[in-house]
């Protein structure tokens, strides 16, 4: 019998991504280690991998929704195609106990933020009723355009908050990636406190470098985790870094750091 996930102590539910395990492990091995370490969620795994996660008692916490980082909701010409994909993925998520699906703004390619916000809202209004009916949250990810994703449009918190406000659905939220937000705007704890109602999910990684949490990087993740927990957040905080050292030792340390 595989080890089943037993949540770690603390107020936050913690998740992982494939990158936390370095290279060379199968999903089966990753899931087994995650469960043993007290992880309860596993992000960014497609439907083919959901049975493996469930065997280990893990929730597939963030599944594909629609669009790619470069080509997504900010272009009206994409909407019909993406709507079909989003509705299909919402149905699959609901049928398999997946709480969230991911989407993106897309790259600017010369488009102003106001036009892009309106286009994203127009798309999300088309699908929000299905997300609400199926109780699956659509999360648009905040990414940096300075280091990793040049020209990405949702690279400032105002953009995502405006999209959520205008869409006006409890099932449309922000995937607040702390690493990306630190690069673009910083002021992480204040931003989280001011906007927690619009945030559905968190990703973590150290900065600079997007590696594990240690004294070479500039963020105090224990303080950030405590701030999130103090706000009563009930979703997942999922780790999305690339380890430089032993992956399992680094993951144990990251989980411990966020055990508040």
Structural description of this entry:
- This protein has one domain (13-257): Divalent-metal-dependent TIM barrel enzymes (TIM Barrel, Alpha-Beta Barrel), CATH 3.20.20.
- Helix 3 packs parallel to helix 4 (113-134).
- Strand 4, helix 4 (113-134) and strand 5 form a beta-alpha-beta unit.
- It has an 8-stranded parallel barrel with strand order 1-2-3-4-5-6-7-8, surrounded by 5 helices.
- Helix content is 39%, strand content 15%.
- By secondary structure, the chain is an alpha/beta fold.
- The protein has helices at 27-36, 50-55, 79-95, 113-134, 157-167, 178-184, 188-195, 221-230, 247-257; strands at residues 13-16, 41-43, 59-66, 100-103, 137-141, 172-177, 199-204, 236-239.
Coarse morphology: globular
Helix/strand-derived category reads: alpha/beta
Can you write the helix and strand succession as a string? Answer: EHEHEHEHEHEHHEHEH
The end-to-end distance, rounded to whole angstroms, is 30 Å
CATH class: Alpha Beta
Short description:
The protein has 260 residues and is an alpha/beta fold. The protein has helices at residues 27-36, 50-55, 79-95, 113-134, 157-167, 178-184, 188-195, 221-230, 247-257, and strands at residues 13-16, 41-43, 59-66, 100-103, 137-141, 172-177, 199-204, 236-239.
